[in-house]
Each structure stands twice: as C-alpha cells, then as structure tokens.
C-alpha cells in the first residue's frame, strides 16, 4: 500500500514540476533581463558597442548566407528543378568546358535519358528600345529553340521560342525580354509584344517576357534579352560564319532535364556512349573528348571552385 502511494506521489510531483517549468523559465529570463539592463545603465558606451557589434555580426552573417545561397546553393528557378543537369565537355586539356553547337545537336537528338536538352551562350549587346536612342549595353543570351519549353519557363506575357524559330540562320529575328527590362524600359506595358528593339544594329521583334523570378541560367549574369541561336550572327556583327556548324567552335553551355526515374549517373553513361560515337565519327575535332553530367547545383561548385572556396571561407569567418 505504501509502495502504491509512493508511486502515485512521485507521478504527482513530476507533474507539478513540469507545470512549474514555464514559470521558472520566465523568472530566470526576467532576472537576466534586469541584470542586463542594470549593466548597460552603468556603462552606456559598452552597451552601445555591444549592440552595434551584434548588429554588424548578424548583418554580415545574413549578407554572406544570401550571397552563398544565390551563387552556389539556390537551384534554377524552374519547375521540378531537382532534375536539371548541366552537361560539360571533358578532355585531357579541359576538365569541364563548353561544347560546340553541332555536338549539342547530336546529343539532343540521340539522348533517351534526358527529357529535354537545351543550350545557351552569352554575348554583349547594345540595345535601343526606341529610334535614335543611345544603346544600353548588357550581357545577353542566345539560346536554343527549346530553351524555354525544355526548362518549363512559362513567360508572364507572350511566349517563348518555337523550335522552328531556331533552324534557319538569320530568318527569325525574335526576342524574349527579361522581366526587369520590361519593368525598366516599358513600365510593364502589355502592348510591348510586337514592338521592335535594336540589338547591335539589327531589329528584333519582342514576343515574350520571362517571369520575374527567372533572372537567367547563371547567378552572375542577368540577361536583358534572349534570342535564338540562329539569330546570333545578326545580333553580333563580325561573328564567325561557322559559329553553329564548326565542331571546333565550343561556346555552348548545355542544360538538360532528366526523365523521371533516371539518375545523373545513368544520363552520363548514355551521353558518354554518344560522345564516343562522335569521337569516332569526327576524330579531327572530337578525339579524346567525352562529357560530364552534373546536377545543376553541384555544377556551380565544380565550375567555380575558387568562388565556392571564397564564399564558404567568408561564411565560415563571419559564422
């Protein structure tokens, strides 16, 4: 009987202790707060320095994390971004490099593991939105015809490119503009579709506006405009005539979307098999060349090891 009563008493005591825990915490916090106030009142300069130091520390940590997140950790802002991969050229001289547009086309047409394979390149352009306007210079992007559809980027206005708009050199001078450019230069005017802008002296017709959250395929570069690859020569006077046909011209950056259930390793195995076939077919340009497939976030670390090391070091210092 005593044992039973003792057990009941222990349970009751534990329950009372548990109920008193919030009270104890509040009392301790109140005492600590009063002590802190008294200390700061005795030494205002120390309090000011402490508050400023704390604010600077929090601000530095927040800024560094935002930088690392934007540059290295944040996935591409597209639907199902976990299946986005980058395809790089690998050779004895280059660990991770760009591919020729001709090689891109072969990989795109032969792959079964990728739902879509798109490519892009950057170019400098002077853009004028009105006649006789002084051009504004920016780093912009030429992209494959399936760039927007393959990455599932739905324009907020108009449309992306059709694949047939990227088949004949110089025929389709159309452009999709960034949300930032639409806001800055056109005050979000919905009648912007069909208007012409001058890109390095050539007139392009606006057909769409990308969503606000998509600022480009790379963290460092925010293009104002996107044009089809086959319009590159019109946008870049003096560009090589064999830019799209020569396998020696390696300037294309490839982004793919894995098919459901397909791993990065499986995609790489398949694309390397295709690359071996291209090396046998075009030994002069493709001998000893293969490809490496990386998920999008890892590719940012691999392609910018110095930036990654610097960012993580700074984050460690501020942390």
Q: Would you give an account of this structure?
A:
The chain is of the alpha+beta class. The protein has two domains: 2-73, no CATH class; 81-309, no CATH class. The chain is built from ten helices and eleven strands. It has helices spanning 2-42, 44-73, 101-110, 147-151, 179-186, 232-235, 264-281, 283-286, 296-303, 305-318, and strands spanning 84-90, 99-100, 114-128, 136-143, 157-158, 174-177, 196-199, 202-209, 225-228, 250-258, 290-295. The chain has a six-stranded mixed beta barrel. α3 packs across α7.
User: Globular, elongated, flat, extended or rod-shaped: what is the shape?
Assistant: globular
How do the strands of the widest beta sheet line up side by side? 3-4-9-6-8-7
**What is the number of helices?**
10
Compute the CA-based radius of gyration: 29 Å
State the low-pLDDT regions, or none: 1-19
What does the secondary structure layout of this molecule look like, with pairings?
Layout lengths: L1 H41 L1 H30 L10 E7 L8 E2 H10 L3 E15 L7 E8 L3 H5 L5 E2 L15 E4 L1 H8 L9 E4 L2 E8 L15 E4 L3 H4 L14 E9 L5 H18 L1 H4 L3 E6 H8 L1 H14 L1
Parallel strand pairs: 4-9, 6-8
Antiparallel strand pairs: 1-10, 1-11, 2-10, 3-4, 3-7, 3-10, 5-8, 6-9, 7-8
Helix pairs in contact: 1-2, 2-10, 3-7
């Amino acid at each position: 009987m005593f044992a039973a009563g003792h057990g009941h008493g222990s349970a009751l005591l534990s329950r009372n202790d548990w109920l008193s825990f919030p009270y104890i915490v509040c009392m301790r916090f109140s005492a600590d707060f009063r002590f802190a106030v008294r200390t700061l009142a005795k030494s205002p300069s120390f309090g000011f320095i402490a508050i400023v130091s704390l604010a600077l520390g929090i601000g530095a940590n927040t800024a560094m994390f935002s930088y690392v997140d934007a540059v290295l950790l944040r996935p591409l802002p597209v639907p199902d971004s976990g299946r986005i991969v980058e395809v790089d050229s690998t050779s004895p001289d280059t660990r991770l490099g760009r591919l020729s547009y001709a090689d891109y086309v072969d990989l795109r047409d032969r792959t079964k593991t990728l739902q879509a394979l798109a490519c892009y390149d950057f170019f400098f352009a002077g853009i004028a939105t009105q006649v006789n306007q002084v051009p504004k210079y920016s780093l912009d992007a030429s992209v494959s015809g399936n760039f927007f559809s393959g990455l599932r980027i739905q324009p907020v206005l108009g449309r992306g490119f059709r694949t047939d708009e990227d088949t004949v050199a110089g025929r389709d001078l159309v452009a999709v503009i960034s949300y930032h450019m639409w806001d800055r230069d056109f005050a979000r005017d919905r009648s912007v579709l069909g208007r012409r802008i001058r890109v390095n002296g050539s007139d392009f017709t606006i057909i769409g506006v990308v969503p606000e959250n998509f600022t480009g395929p790379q963290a460092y570069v925010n293009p104002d405009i996107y044009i089809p690859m086959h319009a590159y020569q019109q946008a870049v006077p003096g560009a090589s005539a064999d830019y799209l046909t020569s396998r020696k011209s390696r300037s294309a950056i490839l982004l793919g979307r894995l098919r459901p259930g397909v791993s990065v390793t499986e995609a790489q195995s398949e694309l390397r098999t295709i690359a071996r076939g291209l090396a046998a077919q075009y030994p002069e340009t493709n001998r000893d060349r293969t490809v490496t497939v990386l998920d999008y976030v890892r590719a940012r670390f691999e392609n910018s090891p110095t930036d990654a090391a610097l960012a993580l070091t700074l984050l460690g210092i501020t942390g």
